[in-house]
Amino acid sequence: MRAGGGTLAKQQQQTTTVTTANPDILSFSVEKAATEVCRSQLEQVLRAGAIRLLIDALDREISDFIEEHREVRDGAGRQAVVRNGHARARTIQTGLGPVEVQVPRARDRNKALRFTSKILPPYLRRVPSIDNLIPTLYLKGISDEQMGEALAAILGEGAARLSAASVRRLREGWNADFETWNKRDLSGKRYVYIWADGIYFNVRLTDERPCLLVLVGSLPDGTKELVAIHDGVRESKLSWMEVLHDLRQRGLAEAPELAIGDGALGFWAALPEVFPSTRTQRCWVHKTANVLDKMPKSVQPGAKKKIHDMYLAQGRKQAGEAFEDFRKIYGAKYPKAWECLEKDRDALLAFYDFPAEHWAHIRSTNPIESLFATVRHRQRQTKGNGSRAATLAMVFKLAVEAGKKWRRLRGHAHLAKVVAGVRFIDGIEEGMPNPLENVA
After folding, report:
1. Are 406 and 366 within one domain?
2. Judgement on whether residues 259 and 339 belong to the same structural domain of the protein
3. Which end of the chain has fewer CB atoms at under 10 Å, N or C?
4. Domain span including residue 110
């Protein structure tokens, strides 16, 4: 007992000594506590300010409504539209935590008019920014069951009341969002470049593996945006015809200048029937994989370097020389690999007729591949959705969220020249000095 007591006293003495001998530790603890208090106070001030602003906005809104109908009279000659207290208090989940508000009410003695707040519509329980946050968390692999906990960590404990069932109901609304987006008017839209690809996804409750046909476009200002997501039957011509005709019917009158995609797509058979003037560029990433697949692994590293020499060449002539080098080295021994490469030579080298600043963007379908890398990550977390409709809605919502991080095309100022029909030779505007012409 004495030994134990002595040990305990010694430990207490050591602890006291360490604390007093290191005043910085104590100072840090006090400073941290003070910071937490200040942060809590700041949040309270901000929340109080937000509530005050919201109340003022609601008061102005109902005052404007009453003023708008000030001349309306009831049967007794009195002003018909008057204030009528407040609705029952409700809690709104915001980025500053839960905020309790009461929406003012108006009464029409004639019972013909009804006031509905546009700031706080009926049944609103979360500000829209939170609904936008949920898809972002999905991209990070947060499940329905974890969503409340994740939102609570970000927005405060009030967000923890979002149950898994509530999150699922929210996701069901994504179907309506997709339907609205899929019927939007495209009149006046102009896509200079479009990227096309077919993306396969697993459906957990069936053996189906739907192919979603995806189009991404570049606007004349260099902004990239999601153009179409279509639930196709494989990557067939018929499915792509449905996509392209639908774009036409919704107002897309101007044909893209260039379309980029994998050579296996039925897209190439459908494109000329809808947009015959659009030029084609085959994706070098897909083509490289297809060519190397027809060669032994032992020679693939060298062959891959030769293919890189083709699409990284500074001009069409140099690329042609790289093609010839590949033929001399591999053509005789691996004729299928050479045939796979040679048959699409013109479509593979089309990018040389466009601004050099755009080459990195238009040589491959990377805009789609990078976009759907995040979507596939979510699919791996959930092991696929339960239905085709759920897959389509989730892919749409996640793609829209991921697409918000897209950057404009490098050299986007040249897009206006591309639209105007200005010719480019080896990436240089016709009539401008080309440094390659001075190379011996």
Report:
1. yes
2. yes
3. C
4. 48-125
